[in-house]
Protein backbone atom coordinates (compact mmCIF):
# COMPACT_ATOMS: atom_id res chain seq x y z
CA UNK A 1 0.00 0.00 0.00
CA UNK A 2 1.31 3.42 -0.96
CA UNK A 3 0.91 6.58 1.08
CA UNK A 4 -0.09 9.77 -0.65
CA UNK A 5 0.81 12.76 1.48
CA UNK A 6 -1.06 15.96 1.09
CA UNK A 7 2.23 17.53 0.08
CA UNK A 8 2.34 15.06 -2.85
CA UNK A 9 -0.55 16.99 -4.35
CA UNK A 10 1.88 19.89 -4.74
CA UNK A 11 -0.74 22.42 -3.72
CA UNK A 12 1.84 25.14 -3.76
CA UNK A 13 2.86 24.53 -7.36
CA UNK A 14 2.30 27.60 -9.47
CA UNK A 15 -0.30 26.04 -11.77
CA UNK A 16 -2.39 25.03 -8.76
CA UNK A 17 -2.02 28.41 -7.14
CA UNK A 18 -3.38 30.02 -10.32
CA UNK A 19 -6.40 27.71 -10.41
CA UNK A 20 -7.14 28.09 -6.71
CA UNK A 21 -6.49 31.84 -6.84
CA UNK A 22 -9.05 32.12 -9.62
CA UNK A 23 -11.57 30.43 -7.36
CA UNK A 24 -11.07 32.90 -4.50
CA UNK A 25 -11.12 35.82 -6.93
CA UNK A 26 -14.47 34.62 -8.31
CA UNK A 27 -15.80 34.24 -4.75
CA UNK A 28 -14.78 37.81 -3.88
CA UNK A 29 -16.46 39.19 -6.99
CA UNK A 30 -19.68 37.17 -6.89
CA UNK A 31 -20.28 37.45 -3.15
CA UNK A 32 -18.97 41.02 -2.87
CA UNK A 33 -16.77 40.23 0.13
CA UNK A 34 -13.35 41.61 1.00
CA UNK A 35 -11.78 38.26 2.01
CA UNK A 36 -11.69 34.80 0.43
CA UNK A 37 -9.33 31.89 1.12
CA UNK A 38 -8.53 28.31 0.32
CA UNK A 39 -6.87 26.93 3.44
CA UNK A 40 -5.21 23.65 4.33
CA UNK A 41 -4.81 22.66 7.96
CA UNK A 42 -1.30 21.42 8.72
CA UNK A 43 -1.57 19.84 12.17
CA UNK A 44 2.02 18.55 12.02
CA UNK A 45 3.29 22.13 12.02
CA UNK A 46 0.39 23.60 14.04
CA UNK A 47 -0.64 26.00 11.31
CA UNK A 48 -3.23 26.88 8.72
CA UNK A 49 -1.79 27.49 5.25
CA UNK A 50 -3.48 29.79 2.75
CA UNK A 51 -2.89 28.15 -0.62
CA UNK A 52 -4.93 30.92 -2.25
CA UNK A 53 -6.08 34.17 -0.68
CA UNK A 54 -7.52 37.57 -1.39
CA UNK A 55 -8.01 40.47 0.99
CA UNK A 56 -6.00 39.38 4.02
CA UNK A 57 -4.69 42.12 6.28
CA UNK A 58 -1.00 42.50 7.07
CA UNK A 59 1.05 40.56 8.03
CA UNK A 60 -0.98 37.51 6.91
CA UNK A 61 -1.16 38.70 3.30
CA UNK A 62 2.58 38.05 3.04
CA UNK A 63 2.90 35.13 5.46
CA UNK A 64 0.17 33.01 3.81
CA UNK A 65 -0.44 31.18 7.07
CA UNK A 66 -1.57 31.58 10.67
CA UNK A 67 -1.01 29.57 13.81
CA UNK A 68 -3.64 26.85 14.18
CA UNK A 69 -5.17 28.53 17.24
CA UNK A 70 -6.34 31.36 14.94
CA UNK A 71 -7.98 28.93 12.50
CA UNK A 72 -11.73 28.91 12.09
CA UNK A 73 -11.42 26.72 9.01
CA UNK A 74 -10.27 23.80 11.16
CA UNK A 75 -13.80 23.71 12.61
CA UNK A 76 -15.19 23.19 9.09
CA UNK A 77 -12.95 20.13 8.72
CA UNK A 78 -13.83 18.78 12.16
CA UNK A 79 -17.52 18.83 11.26
CA UNK A 80 -17.32 18.60 7.47
CA UNK A 81 -20.28 20.74 6.64
CA UNK A 82 -20.67 24.40 5.79
CA UNK A 83 -20.08 26.85 8.63
CA UNK A 84 -22.31 29.92 8.47
CA UNK A 85 -21.70 32.82 10.84
CA UNK A 86 -23.61 36.04 10.23
CA UNK A 87 -22.14 38.02 13.13
CA UNK A 88 -19.26 36.64 15.12
CA UNK A 89 -20.03 38.89 18.08
CA UNK A 90 -23.56 37.47 18.29
CA UNK A 91 -22.55 33.81 17.88
CA UNK A 92 -21.84 32.22 21.29
CA UNK A 93 -19.71 29.50 19.66
CA UNK A 94 -17.23 31.93 18.14
CA UNK A 95 -17.55 35.37 19.74
CA UNK A 96 -14.36 34.80 21.75
CA UNK A 97 -12.42 33.05 18.99
CA UNK A 98 -9.12 34.92 18.53
CA UNK A 99 -8.94 34.32 14.78
CA UNK A 100 -11.87 36.55 13.95
CA UNK A 101 -10.51 39.54 15.84
CA UNK A 102 -6.98 39.00 14.52
CA UNK A 103 -8.13 38.83 10.89
CA UNK A 104 -10.84 41.49 11.26
CA UNK A 105 -13.68 39.16 10.23
CA UNK A 106 -17.26 39.66 11.47
CA UNK A 107 -19.14 37.32 9.08
CA UNK A 108 -17.86 33.96 7.80
CA UNK A 109 -19.00 31.33 5.31
CA UNK A 110 -16.83 28.22 4.92
CA UNK A 111 -17.22 25.02 2.89
CA UNK A 112 -15.10 21.84 3.03
CA UNK A 113 -13.05 20.71 0.05
CA UNK A 114 -12.62 16.96 -0.28
CA UNK A 115 -9.60 15.07 -1.52
CA UNK A 116 -9.07 11.41 -2.35
CA UNK A 117 -11.66 9.06 -0.88
CA UNK A 118 -13.83 12.04 0.01
CA UNK A 119 -11.59 13.02 2.91
CA UNK A 120 -12.05 16.70 3.82
CA UNK A 121 -8.65 18.36 3.78
CA UNK A 122 -9.13 22.00 2.81
CA UNK A 123 -11.65 24.79 3.16
CA UNK A 124 -12.97 27.44 0.81
CA UNK A 125 -14.17 30.37 2.88
CA UNK A 126 -15.20 33.98 2.56
CA UNK A 127 -15.38 36.68 5.18
CA UNK A 128 -16.81 40.12 5.60
CA UNK A 129 -15.67 42.87 7.95
CA UNK A 130 -19.26 43.73 8.89
CA UNK A 131 -22.15 41.51 10.03
CA UNK A 132 -23.90 39.94 7.08
CA UNK A 133 -26.95 37.84 6.40
CA UNK A 134 -25.76 35.16 4.01
CA UNK A 135 -28.37 34.66 1.31
CA UNK A 136 -29.33 31.40 -0.34
CA UNK A 137 -27.56 32.68 -3.47
CA UNK A 138 -24.31 33.11 -1.49
CA UNK A 139 -24.48 29.57 -0.15
CA UNK A 140 -25.28 28.18 -3.60
CA UNK A 141 -22.25 29.95 -5.11
CA UNK A 142 -19.94 28.73 -2.34
CA UNK A 143 -21.26 25.18 -2.58
CA UNK A 144 -20.66 25.20 -6.34
CA UNK A 145 -17.12 26.62 -6.01
CA UNK A 146 -16.26 24.10 -3.27
CA UNK A 147 -17.54 21.21 -5.41
CA UNK A 148 -15.52 22.43 -8.40
CA UNK A 149 -12.40 22.73 -6.25
CA UNK A 150 -13.04 19.25 -4.84
CA UNK A 151 -13.23 17.83 -8.37
CA UNK A 152 -10.01 19.60 -9.31
CA UNK A 153 -8.14 18.18 -6.31
CA UNK A 154 -9.55 14.67 -6.78
CA UNK A 155 -8.50 14.69 -10.45
CA UNK A 156 -5.05 15.84 -9.40
CA UNK A 157 -4.77 12.96 -6.92
CA UNK A 158 -6.03 10.47 -9.52
CA UNK A 159 -3.44 11.69 -12.01
CA UNK A 160 -0.69 11.13 -9.43
CA UNK A 161 -1.97 7.61 -8.78
CA UNK A 162 -2.08 6.76 -12.47
CA UNK A 163 1.33 8.32 -13.13
CA UNK A 164 2.95 6.35 -10.33
CA UNK A 165 1.02 3.12 -10.98
CA UNK A 166 -0.37 3.00 -7.44
CA UNK A 167 -3.19 0.51 -6.92
CA UNK A 168 -3.78 0.82 -3.18
CA UNK A 169 -3.57 4.10 -1.39
CA UNK A 170 -3.67 5.57 2.06
CA UNK A 171 -3.97 9.34 2.34
CA UNK A 172 -1.90 11.04 5.01
CA UNK A 173 -2.63 14.67 5.67
CA UNK A 174 0.68 16.12 6.80
Automatic annotation (TrEMBL):
Record's InterPro entries? GAF, GAF-like_dom_sf
The record, for Gene3D superfamilies, names: 3.30.450.40
Domain named GAF: residues:
16-163
Q: Which SUPFAM superfamilies match?
A: GAF domain-like (SSF55781)
Matching PANTHER family: GAF DOMAIN-CONTAINING PROTEIN, SLR1143 PROTEIN
Record's protein name: GAF domain-containing protein
Organism from which the protein derives:
Salipiger thiooxidans
Q: What is the lineage of its organism?
A: Bacteria, Pseudomonadati, Pseudomonadota, Alphaproteobacteria, Rhodobacterales
Amino acid sequence: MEILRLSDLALLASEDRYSLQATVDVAVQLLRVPVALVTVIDTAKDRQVFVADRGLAEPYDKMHETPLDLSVCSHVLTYPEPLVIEDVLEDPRYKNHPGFAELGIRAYLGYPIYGPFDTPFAVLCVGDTVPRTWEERDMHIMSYLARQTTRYMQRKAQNILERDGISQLHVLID
